[in-house]
Amino acid sequence: xxLLERIWEAGIVGAGGAGFPAHKKLVQNAELLLINAAECEPxxxxxxxxxxxxxxxxxxxxxxxxxxxAIKRVVIGTKAKYVEEIRALKQSIDQxxxxxxxxxxxxxxxxGDEQILIYEVTGQTVPPGGIPxxxxxxxxxxxxxxxxxxxxxxxxxTDKYITVTGAVEHPVIVRVPVGTPVADCIxxxxxxxxxxxxxIMGGPMMGRQYSSAQLEDLHITKSDGGVVVLEKGHYLxxxxxxxxxxxxxxxxxxxxxCSYCTELCPxxxxxHNMRPHRVMxxxxxxxxxxxxxxxxxxxxxxxxxxxxxxxxxSPRRINIYVKNLLRRGGAKVRDxxxxxxxxxxxxxxxxxxxxxxxxxxxxxxxRQVLEETQCRPAAVCVALRHGIGKEAVPVVAVGDVVKKxxxxxxxxxxxxxxxxxxxxxxxxxxxxxxxxxQADWGNGQ
Length: 445
Ligand code: SF4
Ligand code: SF4
Fold this sequence. Notes:
single chain; 19 strands
């Protein structure tokens, strides 16, 4: 079986973002395979865990990917301050005689944004509205590469390493079956340390927020990497709950057009014409409709609203609102020019991770989680879609007994989607928009 078929067979999706199916992302003859190992969301450390503990597997998989897909250059893009992780990777590279470079960037947010990482490593800007492949570059998360290693050994994606941190008793990296209830992950970290809490799936900057009441229906997917528990009423919680109508009124009455949001916008600083202050002006005044198109270039990193704006406004939320409206109308990015004149300011305007953590009121929580544990849920609930693409079609029925790793839902190789495999031994108890399995831990799986 060819490499891409094995990846499809294993049901691998991008582990670090939107969950793009990996067999559709990797291509033959790319100039550069850039491994995203910068893990820049505050408090998360699953990728660092993988680099320390599975460097041999990551390097071995990269060698095989490079050879089979005839990729010219492979670079692992991480942060220079991840000294232990770099040491482990270098050791594995030396032991295997691999032709793999390591690039260590500064400790800033968002060093792990795909396009920022490309700029950091190559000095090139992906054209606005474009994709890395236009520059001959494929970007893949380091955890995805670990899944590819397992796929090459015939093991599909059944488990995830999740950082569970924030207001929990014992922040921990927990290995869990896909489909594990998020409540079980929190319990594996000793439970919440505050009575009233909310949960962020992903990192504090870009993750999705849920109330504790929503936990009952929340399960780990293949693209998850972090669960951050915060006290209900935390600054981030309050901020994200402001209705968009209120934000628009704020833009009308309070935006002072200082343009700090633009000056610190990472996409603006690599040469995209992403100018959130212009979007705010257009929304506030109802003029310059052409300014609204900038919103299409927003990567939703959150710097403008959680760090830059002195008036505590939310250009990001406005951008998301405008972007959705424009996309519904079929709008596309028209200005594909790159404006390199911004780049000379970039270094001085990077948001240092420590300052960001302070600004987000996350200082009470550990910046890195080292302890590891496992979680054995009584039941798992596996969504039929794990990121971008179409739902998988179930191939099991209620009452079926399944073995860990057995295919339970499928997509065609040509589909944008991922196959699903039983994350545990057990019995199928539901097939209704998702697959529920009662786990059987009795046989030492
Ligand atoms: S930083 Fe805030 S106040 Fe300044 S232009 Fe942007 S949205 Fe307006
Ligand atoms: S969220 Fe704000 S800072 Fe980030 S890309 Fe969008 S406009 Fe720029």
